[in-house]
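I keep forgetting this: the sequence line spells out the residues, with the fold written below as integer tokens. I include a record here:
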Amino acid sequence: MASTTESRKGPVIAVFCGASTGYSPAHLEAARSLAHALHAHNATLVYGAGTTGIMGEIAKTLVSLSGPQSVHGVIPKPLLGKERPEENGGEDEDTYGLKTVVPDMHERKALMAQEVIQGGPGSGFVALSGGYGTLEELFEMITWNQLGIHGRGIVVFNVEGYYDGLISWVRSSVIGGFITPGNAGIMVEALDAEEVIKHLKEYKLSEDRLQLNWDHK
């Protein structure tokens, strides 16, 4: 099992993104540019541990810049053959960083979230382009923020307007009375990699968040 980020004082950034490349080369370029921004700001990446698509691109780019310790991938055992096949260098930590295998999707998300919560200032969650899984992970972290489970920033890296529809839906939900105007700002849009880092560093919590006690100890 890879080491956790408990002792790291720098930012820890979880990136949710696709195991596919998408049709436009801009999606892979965005992944590479974000990796360069993470390196420049001494940030650690925690991600879904895939070696294919956008996941593989951001991981291998950051490892090439900052070394294997800068990347921690978390993957459920059933997905190993799909998202980390051996023919793509799936077992090469020198290429894709450290790896932890967990039993299921719930533990994957919980571990990724825990590392971000324990990270230093500027830690948070970022969505690059992706499909159902990316949106599910993104929305769970948005909901956790709204419920007061964590207070980390959440940014969507909107590549070539990929998330325009999602941003429009948030606005419509405010108009329709399902999301408060304050909570509409839980998710912040970025148009380039440096803007992603800036939004995480300057992230402001919504005053409409629920103030609930999640400490059951």
